[in-house]
Amino acid sequence: MGVTLLKTNASTNGQSPPPLLPSMYISQSSSLSAAGETRIASEQTSNSDLLNLRQCLQTLQAQLPNSPELEQLQAWVEHSAWLQTFHRCSQLLIAVINPVNLTLQYANHYFCQLLNIPFGMQPLVNGEAIHLGTVLKQHLAEKDYGAVLRLYRRHLLHFMLREFYGIDPSSCRLLETPAMVALPGAPDSEPRYVEFWLRSETLQITRLNPQLDEFADLNLASLSPEELDTRLNDPEQLRDLEQRFSLTNYRVEGEMLLEGLDVTVRETIRRITQLLIDRDSILRPHKFQLVSQQLKSLFRTDNTIILTIEKDQIRVFMVSDRSEINATTYPLDLIRDSHAMKALQLNQVMGIRDLAHECRTELGRQLLAQGVRSLLMIPLISQLGMPNSDRHASLQKGRQGQIVGLVGLMSDRPNHFDGLDICHAEQLIPAFARALTSAQRQLVQQRFITNIHPAVEWRFLQEAERRSMGLPPEPIVFNNVYPLYGISDIRGSSDARNRAIQADLLEQLRLGMAVVEAVCAEEASALSEQLRLDLLERMQRIQEKVTVDAEVAETRYLQNHLEVYFDYFAQCGEGAIAAIQAYQAACDNEHQCVYVARAKYDQTISQMNTCLRETWEHWQHRMQQITPHYCDIETTDGIDHMIYAGQSIDSKFGKFQLRSLRYEQLRAMCDCARAALKFQANDQTKMQVTHLLLVQDSTVDIFHDETTEKLFDVRGTRDTRYEIVKKRIDKAIDEQTHTRITQPGMLTLVYSTSEELEEYQQYLHYLTREGLVEEAIEQGTVEPLQGVTGLKFVRVRVRHTAE
Questions:
Q1: Residues near 605 by beta carbon (within 8 Å), at least 6 away in sequence
Q2: In which order are the strands placed within the sheet that holds 374-382?
Q3: pLDDT tens digits for 228-282?
Q4: CA–CA gap between residue 181 and residue 174 (Å, rounded)
């Protein structure tokens, strides 16, 4: 349809006006009244239509000057032109929907563009109105489609509550909550994020069957305002209300306005921020790649680099083509006069428009060689502003705080980044700074904190936090802690291993002898005879005694003086071949030698150690409940534990916690002894386990030495004596009987002072009362150790089971 201009009854100089407007725009429908009333209809006027109409109006105005009707028509044309501009250029998505069948009555240009439907004020497909539900279902994920449908039902619910129950739900703002959806973009591009609102003020709803009340059982009218707010503000209860009513029981009249706002930039920034503040380090490949992908969508970039400053070095991280992170280290002086350092010092997002003309550093030249032409540099500055005593402090301080690093966005096009990109980058600075600070802290922790006991981890994390800020190292020291040392030693393990070595070597030598004898039987020679005599001598020597080097020496001898001839020996008849095959089958294992008896020994030791360790760890969990303390366990032929406890580790530590911990240590050692006795009985091994506890009532200072593998060392000469005793006490001898102070199935306590003895005698009394140890106590003096004298011991037998 075109524009309808009503014909006037008046004449001009007695003549009717010529038909100046084309019939496609002007058609006669009634006469103009004396008051100049007009009726204009407009439906779908294009830019060219409006241009032609303007030209016709100019011609008509020249012939009919000062005509009120033409002035009204002129005003309508200008208004129509403005509406056409709004229709084409608005950045909002706007549509008018029939609320009954959800067909589009109107849609602006941007709405049609993003939903990929034909352009037009009333979009049509094959002459029929477009069903909005069908369009949304084609373009939206199921979750997003459901969100739009819930938005529609929520508006209907609002009107039902108001019309049929007299409830005003405006305070719950049901109609103000948008639905966020993701619309697919162009191929190989990220989706567009749109927030949709509905406007439903013109709706009228009539219930077709008044007897059918879906909400009757809820008795909504009787709810207090507080109860109603609770129901409508709870997502689950609100969803239940939305799903209760049946649309077939209502007649909906009017129109609904659907408004959408493209929030892609805001949502992308939010998603990047969410990624950055996630716990995973940004310097992990998968996380780095996810962030880079989102940055590419927001800034149209090709790649991203992250630069960190560590003392006198910078590290540059970049994702490679294989989705791996490449880290390159450069001297800090390399960027002293660079754009990057300027951005850091000014704490200002800066861009390099064309790297080909503004390249100042070796790093810049490397990026240029990789095809990078423009850069956007985002400085990351911690707002803590803590002092930095490093010799590069002047470089590492930004204008407002401590430098964390820099993010560089790269493009292969010159002059790529603009002011809007800078604005978006500034919004990401806090999240990037937090993410990189966390990543640096994790890097420091990975290097600095490895297998740290939970009780002391807090101090290492504290130091890692300081170092991640560029602060100088501080020693990690725990002063005045009480040492509690104990050992469960497998007695006879060395002899058992020697016997296992002896058995395996004799078996391998026997198999080797069988090879040589088979060769001699087929083809005797002087060399093979001498080889046979060598093997015989070695077998006799091994039967008499196994020396320390025998395990390695004998195996190496067989490799160099027997096995090297196997290719030749295999030509010496079937007997030699069978002997060689038997030898090789026996040595077909990871050790490349006979390893049967030793495998059995290793298995037994491993099982005994597992038994002891599991028993101790069970008790260790209970001991940590008394007071958090450091406990280190070492496993060799048995296990030994080293406990440090004190107020510098646990601020709540006191005398009661100390004595409770000491008594619990004794109970744990008794349980380890019982577990060992049970294992010996079940496995029928000749190896036995002894148990010793070293008592010291004075405190020591421990510190972490980063140059050694040990987590803690004792500090000061007064504490060295304790370490010496620890290393030598398990082999200590009774001064009177000249036997070992540790005996199988018994718990030995070594002490120095009468006060220590008095305290531990009380604990032994408690153990006896619990049925853990026998009542008889053996006492003695320890023979002087190298550098240590004056030690004494008491010893009790551990009961197999509690009485």
A1: 490, 493, 637, 687
A2: 325-331, 313-319, 303-310, 402-411, 374-382, 350-352
A3: 888 888 888 888 888 888 888 888 888 889 999 999 999 999 999 998 888 788 8
A4: 18
> How many Å apart are CA 30 and CA 448, to the nearest integer?
92
Q: Give the sign of the dihedral formed by CA 382, CA 387, CA 393, CA 398.
A: positive
Distance CA 646, CA 36 (A): 101
Distance (Å, rounded) from C-alpha 729 to C-alpha 692?
9
| C-alpha angle 587-593-598 in degrees, rounded to nearest 5 | 110
How many angstroms separate the most distant Cα atoms in the chain? Answer: 151
Q: Tokens standing for 402?
A: 């401590």
For residue 778, the tally of other CB atoms under 10 A from its CB is: 14
Cα–Cα distance measured from residue 587 to residue 606, given in angstroms and rounded to the nearest whole number: 22
Cβ atoms of 524 and 539 closer than 8 Å: no
Spatial distance between the Cα atoms of 753 and 750, rounded to a whole number of angstroms: 10
CA distance 6 to 4: 6
How far, in Å, CA of 393 to CA of 383, rounded? 16
CB 6 within 8 A of CB 30: yes
Residue 626 pLDDT > 90? yes
CB atoms within 10 A of CB 707: 5
Q: Taking a C-beta distance cutoff of 8 angstroms, is the pair 90, 110 a contact? A: yes
Q: Is 315 helix (H, G, I), strand (E, B) or coil?
A: strand
DSSP 8-state symbol, 563: G
Tokens 């011991």 identify what position?
793
This prediction's pTM = 0.54
